[in-house]
């Protein structure tokens, strides 16, 4: 009988409520709020943990904030909401909230993922080598961040993915294609005009021609300088020999 009484008492004193784990995103350098759904009464004790390390602890009268969350953490004593500012990559991870109120314990779990704001994407075009009238280009949209989504927009149509195959009319093709990259908290868009596929194709040839001309010019100038210095040196040497005074050796008398 005693064990059953003790078990009933234990269940009445400590009641554990484990909330389903949810994923929360935050931008690096920005802020995020983790708020549990709790009853209106203020908890007697609050403890927030991050990957088994204490973040902030409230004992009913005062709170203690622990490194590395000092000076960028605010705890609401009534709702137990955790407000983090100046987010860093290392703030990502599992957050555990333990509440103690009216002799009952409540547990909540959150997964925080701190991500970068997406950068503006770049678009490149690679044309096929076909000389037929059905010339096409492969547009590739790229951004430095991992785990982002790509989507193309053109003439009321959309297509997911980082690449888009287009058909080219001529070197004056003014059709515009837009690529949007996004993550859960930010997005950026870049545009590409079809005629730029031709400029990308010809730019290596133009660059090679310019470099060849520069190298040739440098060689010509260097040759002229060397030629002038060499022959100027010969002229100075010849002139010195002509102007050298004649000297006679003394004749010894017998």
User: How many runs of DSSP E, i.e. beta strands?
Assistant: 17
Encode the helix/strand succession as letters. HEEEEEEEEEEEEEEEEEH
What is the share of helical residues? 10-25%
Poorly predicted runs of 5 or more residues: 1-19, 200-210
Q: What is the terminal separation in angstroms? A: 156 Å
| Fourth-tier CATH superfamily name of the domain at 23-115 | Immunoglobulins
- State the shape: elongated
CATH topology of the domain at 23-115: Immunoglobulin-like
What percentage of the residues does DSSP assign to strands (E)?
A: 35-45%
Mind summarizing the main beta sheet? Answer: 7 strands, mixed
Any idea what the radius of gyration is?
39 Å
**DSSP summary: helix tally:** 2
Mean pLDDT: 79
- Supply the CATH architecture of the domain at 23-115: Sandwich
Q: Which CATH class of the domain at 23-115?
A: Mainly Beta
Subcellular location: Membrane
InterPro entries: CD2/SLAM_rcpt (IPR015631), Ig-like_dom (IPR007110), Ig-like_dom_sf (IPR036179), Ig-like_fold (IPR013783), Ig_sub (IPR003599)
Transmembrane segments: 205-227
Protein name: Ig-like domain-containing protein
Please tell me about this protein's structure.
- The chain contains 2 helices and 17 strands.
- It has helices at 2-13, 196-243, and strands at residues 16-18, 22-27, 32-34, 45-50, 53-58, 63-65, 73-75, 82-84, 93-101, 104-115, 122-127, 136-142, 149-154, 157-160, 163-167, 176-183, 186-193.
- By secondary structure, the protein is of the alpha+beta class.
- Strands 1, 2, 4, 5, 6, 9 and 10 form a 7-stranded mixed β-sheet that branches. Strands 14-13-16-17 form a 4-stranded antiparallel β-sheet, with no helix packed on it.
- Among the domains are: 23-115, Immunoglobulins (Immunoglobulin-like), CATH 2.60.40; 122-198, Immunoglobulin-like (Sandwich), CATH 2.60.40.10.
- The chain is elongated and about 100 Å long.
- 24% of the residues lie in helices and 39% in strands.
- The termini are far apart.
- Keywords: Glycoprotein, Membrane, Signal, Transmembrane, Transmembrane helix.
- The chain crosses the membrane at residues 205-227.
- Residues 121-193 form the Ig-like domain.
- It comes from Takifugu rubripes.
- It is found in: Membrane.
